[in-house]
Amino acid sequence: MSTRAGTISPVKNAIWQGIKAEIPITIGVIPFGLIYGVLGLSAGLTPLQAQAMSSIVFAGSAQFLGAQLISVGTPLPVLWLTTFIVNLRHVLYSTALGPDVQHLSRKWRWLLAYLLTDEAYAATAVHYGNHQIPLAHKHYFWLGAGFTLWGVWQLSTAVGILLGTQVPPEWGLDFTLALTFIGIVVPSLKDRPNAMAALSAGLVAVLAFSLPYKLGLMLATLTGIAVGVWLENRKGKMGH
Amino acid sequence: MNLWIAIIGMGIITYAIRLAPIWLLERATISPGWRQALRFVPAAVLSAIILPELFLPGGTLDLSLGNARLLAGLAAILVAWRTKNILWTLAVGMGLLWVLG
User: What integer pLDDT is reported at residue B42 of this predicted model?
Assistant: First the structure.
C-alpha cells in the first residue's frame, strides 16, 4: 500500500478496500434480494412499496419476515415487535464499532448507522480489528462496504420485482437466506455458550414454528440468549 | 392496514436500533449484563431463522433423507465451520440442493 501512496489517496484506497472486501459477501445477497422482491409483491406490496422497504428498512431478514407477516394480515404492533427482535443484533454491531467513530461528525455517524447491516459489519469489523491500520480512514472502508451492499440490495430487489413470478420456485433461491446466515453465524460460534445459544434457539424455533405471527422466533431468541448467559456465568463461576 | 405506515415503522425501528449505541455512547454506557446478553443475540436470532428452513421445508417437519434442504444445510454448516468462507458455503449448499432436489 505504501508504494502506491503517491498514486492513490488514502480515502479512495480505504473506500476501494471496503468495496473489495464486501463483494464476495454480496454474492449471497443477490438471490436473497431477488427473492425478497418476488415475495414482497406476492405479500400484497406494490412494486414501489417493495422497493421502498429495501431502502427504508434495509435489513434483509426483517424484510423477509415482514413481507410474510404482512401477507397474513399481522397487526402492526406484532409486525414491529418482530422487526425489533430480529434486528436487535444490530445493537451489538453498533456497540462494537461505536467507540471507533466517536471522533466523527454527527452526519457521518448517522450515515454509517444506516449502513450497518450484518454483511457490512462482517467485513468492517475485521477491518477495525486490524490495529496496524490507522483509524483515520477506516470509516471510509465502512462507507465503501456499506454502500456496496446497499447498491446490490436495491438492484437485486428491483430485479426481483421486475421478474415477479417468473423466477421458478424449484430453483430454491430462497434457500440462499439460510445459507448466507450459516456462512455468517457458524464461524462466529467460537465457544460453548455461543454454540449452545445457537443450538437451543434453533431447536425452540423448530418446535415452536406453528405459533402464529412468527412468535416462535421471539421465544427461540430469548431462549438462546438465556442459555448462552447461563452457561457463560456458570463457566465463570467454575473458573474462579 | 396501511402498508406505508407498516414499512416506515419498520424502518424507524431498524434505524433506531442501529443508531442508538453509536449515538448514545458519548453520554451513556451499556451495563455489563445487557452487553453480555446482547452478545448472544446474533447467534440466537440467526439460528432461529436458519434451523426451521432446514427442518421444516414448506412448513412441516421433515427429518427424512428425502429432505434435500436438511442435507444441503448440514453440509453447508460443515463447510462454513471448516472454511469460514461464505462463497464455499453458498456453492456447496445450493449445489447439493439442486443435485438432491
Answer: 82
